[in-house]
Amino acid sequence: MQAVHGDDGFTVALLPHLIKNYEAWEQRHFVAEVGLFWQTGHDDGMEYNINSRQTKDILRGAPSFRPSFNTYMWADAQAIARMAERTGDVETAKRFRAKADALKERIQALLWDPKREFFFPMYRDAEERDGHKIKARTLTYESGQFAEDPHGRELIGFVPWQFNMLDENKGYEVAWKKIMDRDAFYADFGPSTVERHDPLFLLKNSCCWWSGQSWPYATTQTLKGMANLLQGGERTVVTADDYVKLLQVYARTHRKQGRPYLAEACHPDTGSFEGHDGYNHSEHYFHSGYCDLVITGLVGLKPVSPMAFDVQPLAPATWDWFALDDVSYHGRRVSIVWDRRGTRYAQGAGMHVLVDGQKVASAPNLERLSVSLPPQARPKADPTHETAVNFAVNNDGTYYPRLTASYSAPKTSTGKLHDGNYWYHQHPPNRWTCEGSPNERDWVIVDLGTPRRVHTVKLYVLDDGGESGSLVRTPERMQLDAWIEAAWRPIAPTDRHLQEPLGHRANVVRFDPIETNKFRVTLQHRAGTKSGLTEIEAWGDAKLPLAQAPPPEGNLALNSDPKTKEFPKVSASHTSRFDRLTTANDGITNFLPTPANRWTSYESKSPSDWLEIDFGRDVEFRRIELALYDDRGGVQAPSAYVVQQWTGTEWRDVPDARKSPERPVGGQWNEVRFDPVTATRVRIVFTHRGAARSGVTEVMVWND
C-alpha cells in the first residue's frame, strides 16, 4: 500500500502499532535458542494438515517452526524497518533490519532440506501418536511413522518466494520443479496443497483438510511467489508459460455450475466445492490477491518508488492484445497496453505505458521496461480540506453508529447494514430483512451518536425475485426522515429513489446538507412481500481524522482493562477454548468472526449456560443490552434467555422483564428492560438453540 499510494501520514500513525504487534508475537512465539517463531498449523490457517495428523490434536496440530509463519514475520520486520527509515527513525530501522536478517538466515539454515530440496515445518517439541514418536527439532517426515519418506512437501514451502525473501544463487529455486508435476502439486483445478503421492495425501468431502484439496488462497500465495521468481530472472525451472497456465487453471476454478464462484477449497481434479461451501461458511470466497496476480504478475506492474515503476509482463507475446487500464499509482492514472499488430488501441504496435492519458514509454516487445513518471504540479496542502465520509459505517466495534429496527427476520440482522459491505445474493447472507414481520411497513434508525452534516444517503435495496421461496422484494416506496429539533422531519420526500425504489443497486438520495445525529428509513412493503436492505450509508464532507462519537456514560458492566481493574468482573458456566471471557464487557462490539471479540459457550455439554457480571458492590440497574453473537453454525442466538439477580442467598429472575426484540436475534443488539433492582451480581441464562451454543460480543448494564 505504501509503495503504491505513498501515504506517509498513514505510515507514521501505523508504525508504533506495528512495532507493538511484532513485539507481542516475539513474547509469545519466539524461541531465542532456535531463532524462529513457532505456530500451530491450525492458527497458521491450515487445519488437519499432514503434520497435525501425526499428533494427538489432529485439528490444531503441535507447535512448529513453519516456513510460512516465519516468512510473514520476516516480511513484518522488513516493512517496519522500511517505514522507520521513511520517518527518520534510524535506530528502529536498524533494529528491525537486524531481526529480519537473523530470521532469514535461520529459515534458510533450519527449514530447508537439501535432500528433498524444499522448505518444511520443524516440530518444536517431541510428539507422539498411535505409538509413533516424532523427535523435537525434526522436519516433516524426518522422524515418526513416515521417517525417511521422500515426500512431505506442502504449498507453504513456496511462501518465502511470495515476499522475495531468499538469498540468490543458493539453489533454492529447484523446489519449483514440483509445481508443474502431476505426481506432485499440479492438477486440473490445482495446485493441490500436498503432493499427490504423499502417504498422508487425502481428499475429504468436508472442511477443512489441508491434505490434498486445492485451496484458492494458497494458490494465490504460490502464484505470487512464482511471479517473483520469474521476474527476478530465474526461468530454468519454471517459465512464464507455466505461470500463465497455472493462472488459467486458477481462473477456471472460479466457477460453479457455469457461473462465477469461489469457495474455501475444492477438489483438485474436478473443481467441485462440495463439502466446503455450506450455508454461511465460505460461499463467494473471492480473494483480492487474485487481482494482484493479473496486475503485478501477468501484466507486470511493479512498484519501484513514488516517481517510478517497472513493467515486467509474464503474458505471452503471442497474444494479439491486452490492456490494464486506469490503475491508481501515487495519485496518477497508469495504463499498460500490448498491441501486437498495432490495430487495437491506436497507439502503434508493441507495448505502451500511459500516465494520466499521455504515453510515456514504449517497447517493441513484451520485455522489462523501466518507467519514470513525468513531473506533476502538486497542490499545496490545505489544512481545511474536507473529504467525503460515510458517517454510518461501524467497523471498529464502537457504541456509535448504532442501528435499531422495528423488526428483524431470523438469520438477518441490523449489524449487516453498516459493516461496509453490500451484496444482493442470499448466501452468504449480508442483509437485514422483514420476512415474518406483522407490519405493513418497517423502519431502521441509524443513530450517529453526535451531530453530523449529511448530504447523501444510499440505500442498497434487496430483491430476491422469488429465488429459493424468498418473499423479499423491492419496497413499494421508502421514506427518509432526520431527527431535527426533537422531531422526525422528512428529507427529500419527492425523490424518485424513495418513491420508486429499485432493487439490486444503491438508491441514492441527495439533498441540501442537514445537521442531524440520527435518521430513519421506513420501508412500505408491497402486498404479499417484505422488504430488505444490505447496506445503509450516510455521506457528508468532513476533515480527517474523524472524531469518534463517545459512548454514553453509565454502563455499569464496562471493564475495558481487567488487568488493572478487578470489577466489574465477568464469569461464565462455560467458555469456549477459542474465545476470551473478558471480551464480554470490554466496550468493543464485533459481530464478525474475525477479529474475534466474543464470549461463547461453544462445545458446552449443557443445554443452557450463564454469563455473570459481578459489580463488586450493590448497584441499581433496570436495563441490559446484549450484543448476541451468531455465526449461523456452532454458535447461534439462543432460543430464549432470562436475566437473574443475586439476592444474597439465591438467583432470582428480575421482575417484569420486557424484551426487544421478543425473540432473541443474533448479529445485533437485544435489549431487556425491567423494574429497578439492586444487586451485587447479575447473570443472563441462555437456553441454547438445538445443538448450537450461545454467545455475546458485549454486555451492557444501565440504570437510565
Q: What would the average pLDDT be, to the nearest integer?
A: 95
Bin the helical content.
10-25%
Rg (CA only): 28 Å
Shape: globular
Describe the structure.
The protein is of the alpha+beta class. It is built from nine helices and 33 strands. The strands form nine sheets. Strands 18, 19, 20, 21, 22, 23, 24 and 25 form an eight-stranded antiparallel β-sheet that branches. Strands 26, 27, 28, 29, 30, 31, 32 and 33 form an eight-stranded antiparallel β-sheet that branches. Strand 29 and strand 30 form a beta hairpin. Helix 2 (8-29) crosses helix 3, helix 6 (216-231) runs antiparallel to helix 7 (240-253) and helix 6 (216-231) runs parallel beside helix 8 (289-298).
Please specify the SSE layout and strand pairing.
Layout: H1 2-5, H2 8-29, E1 30-31, E2 36-37, E3 64-65, H3 67-87, H4 90-110, E4 112-113, E5 118-119, E6 122-123, E7 127-129, E8 132-134, H5 159-162, H6 216-231, H7 240-253, E9 255-256, E10 259-260, H8 289-298, E11 301-305, E12 308-311, E13 321-329, E14 332-339, E15 350-355, E16 358-363, E17 369-372, E18 387-390, E19 402-405, E20 432-433, E21 441-461, E22 477-484, E23 487-490, H9 496-499, E24 505-524, E25 532-542, E26 569-572, E27 599-600, E28 608-628, E29 640-646, E30 651-653, E31 658-660, E32 669-687, E33 695-702
Antiparallel strand pairs: 1-2, 3-6, 4-5, 7-8, 9-10, 11-12, 12-17, 13-14, 14-15, 15-16, 18-25, 19-21, 20-25, 21-24, 21-25, 22-23, 22-24, 26-28, 27-33, 28-32, 28-33, 29-30, 29-32, 31-32
Helix pairs in contact: 2-3, 3-4, 6-7, 6-8
